[in-house]
Design brief:
- It is a single chain.
- The chain is α+β, with helices and mostly antiparallel strands.
- Strand 1 and strand 2 form a beta hairpin.
- It has a nine-stranded antiparallel sheet, with helices on both faces.
- It is globular.
- It contains four helices and nine strands.
């Protein structure tokens, strides 16, 4: 019973994003990859977060999403979006490894103090190669003050996330054995 509940609950739980300052993050935040694989890929949860383990405190959440014509990464970044309406379009400038990326996203507000911006990124976007190198991701929403996201320690969990997300339809359900010949 609990196992069936987790895939539906976790996508809601991991979207609790806060615009943390660098000093508030300290050394407690880290990159964590969680996966809950079900027989139906639409019920599967694959998520990479930057946060404090076993709490709702996080700055970034990346989940594998299945759209009408593509599988993509839904990227939620905690950001200061004061004065912007929930669902409003936002331009997000990202800089990783000295390379600038500009993406269109939308503002989200889940409850007081839990807000940011959501982006949809292709799994083969060059952005992922830059992010996997570590360092710092700097991002700005609608030309506002830049925010930073530490990327050290992301390479291994990101590699696992992207590989699983690309193959989400073929992942064996947890507790199930792989099909013969695989």
């Amino acid at each position: 019973m609990m196992r069936a509940f987790l895939p539906r609950f976790l996508p809601l739980a991991v979207t609790v994003l806060l615009p943390f300052s660098a000093t508030a993050q300290g050394d407690r935040m880290q990159w964590i990859y969680n996966r809950y694989v079900e027989r139906n890929p639409l019920d599967t949860y694959l998520g990479l977060i930057y946060g404090i383990p076993e709490t709702d405190a996080m700055q970034a959440s990346i989940t594998c999403s299945i759209g009408a014509n593509w599988i993509y990464a839904a990227v939620d970044l905690g950001a200061e979006v004061e004065g912007l309406a929930d669902g409003a379009s936002a331009t997000v400038a990202l800089n990783a490894g000295g390379r600038e990326f500009v993406e269109q996203g939308s503002v989200f507000r889940h409850e007081e103090g839990i807000w940011g911006v959501s982006l949809a990124l292709a799994l083969d976007d060059p952005f992922w190669a830059e992010v996997s190198r570590g360092g710092i991701l700097t991002y700005r929403v609608n030309e506002r003050a830049p925010q930073t996201l530490p990327l050290d320690g992301i390479a291994e969990p990101l590699h696992g996330f992207l590989g699983d997300c690309i193959a989400i339809a073929e992942l064996p359900a947890e507790g199930a054995t792989a099909p013969a010949g695989k």
